[in-house]
Amino acid sequence: MRTLAITGAAGFLGQRIVALARPDFDHVVAIDMAPVPAADGVTPVVADITVPGALDACFAGVDTVMHAAAVVDVRPRPDPRMQAVNVEGTRNVVEACLRAGVPHLVHTSTFDVSFDGAPKRDADESLPYPSQPANQYIRSKIEAERLVLAANAPPRLAACSLRPTGIYGPGDRHRIEALARLVKSGELALRFGDGTSVSDHVYVDNVAHAHVLAARALRAPGNPVAGQAYFVGDHPTGNFYTFLDTFFAASGTRIPDRAIPFGLALALGAVTEWTHALLHPILPSFNPMLSRYTVRSVAQDLTFSYARATRDFGYRPIVPLDEAVRRTVEWVRTAGI
Fold first, then answer.
1. What is the DSSP letter of 86?
2. Helices 292-299 and 240-250, axial angle in degrees (round to 10)
3. Which residues make beta-bridge pairs with 6?
4. Which residues have CB under 8 Å from 253's CB, separation 6+?
């Protein structure tokens, strides 16, 4: 009997992993702090990955673990949950796998672990980690990925890490809904750069599919996947703002066409970071979205190749771009984003 355990199963990506992985496994243990709806072959479990030993019973008899739980926040205010979940939670997942004898682990990382501030065009996995991560989120995800890859030691534990680009799709509260809220409030009222930069986005089902394929590959003796990290993208989507305009329009809003040059935006991001550093001790609620990281991530080229994932475990997108956009627009409209 093949059993899968998923952390973060109630999350945006986790829910889609549960749905797409189900045919590959006899049983799925869906782990989260929020209960996942029970379904045929799916057992919801409420557990806190930050508590050492809390996952031992969840992983008993499990063939594969997919670790998708994470706190995502690129703003500058320190968040103790990020270290607790992203780093110590990952450590607890790895150690629970080893104690329970789980032989396969697929970790959800992020393309941001390679973010060093420089533009990227079709970058691959040869990129090193940045020596000075731009924010706490990137730092925590680098630590988490290192923990997973360092634990790789087949046949006891075969582990790999997947690095999705900017995930979107129905249920996307982090990117589409959050940005639409900023546009409606007027906080996001300018575009950065000249509109010629290109960014990568990836549809959530394609990311979930990559997890399933990576898990299949880890089960093969002598596979090339164990111990490796892989970027996961899908279809070229062009400029950051142009791509998201479609979803903002579906929500009844739009980022104004006003734009400021990249250099000026970068300078404003630096000033905002310095202001935060000065005010944080006396005004801890001040937590601006604008930073040099956010400017660079939307106004300069950031694209990544998934050729290595195709070569090593046969990854190819299963949902085409037009269908991915159609499904997402329909969700934005029906959800009242």
1. I
2. 90
3. 30, 66
4. 180, 183, 184
DSSP 33: S
Q: How confident is the model over 11-35, as pLDDT tens digits?
A: 999 999 999 999 999 999 999 999 8
Q: What is the pLDDT of residue 22?
A: 92
Question: Tens digit of pLDDT for each residue in 282-327?
Answer: 988 888 888 999 999 999 999 999 999 999 999 999 999 999 999 9
What are the CA-CA distances from residue 35 to residues 15, 22, 30, 38, 52 (Å)?
11, 18, 8, 9, 20
The residue behind tokens 């496994």 is: 25
Residue 91 CB partners (closer than 8 Å, separation 6+): 147
Q: Quick one: which H or E segment has residue 248?
A: helix 240-250
Q: Where are the beta strands (DSSP E) in the chain?
A: 3-7, 27-32, 42-46, 64-67, 104-108, 120-123, 158-164, 166-168, 191-192, 201-203, 229-232, 259-260, 302-304
Give tens-digit pLDDT for 148-186: 999 999 999 999 999 999 999 999 988 888 888 888 888
CB atoms within 10 A of CB 185: 10
Say how many C-beta atoms besides its own lie within 10 A of residue 236's C-beta: 12
Q: Six-digit token pair at 303? A: 């694209």
Distance CA 160, CA 148 (A): 7
Distance CA 247, CA 268 (A): 27
Q: Which residues are catalytic, by number?
A: 137
Q: Cα(104)–Cα(94) distance, rounded to whole angstroms? A: 10
Cα(70)–Cα(12) distance, integer angstroms:
11
Any idea of the CA torsion for 139, 145, 147, 148, to the nearest 10 degrees?
160
Q: Within its chain, how far is the Cα of 299 from the centroid?
A: 20
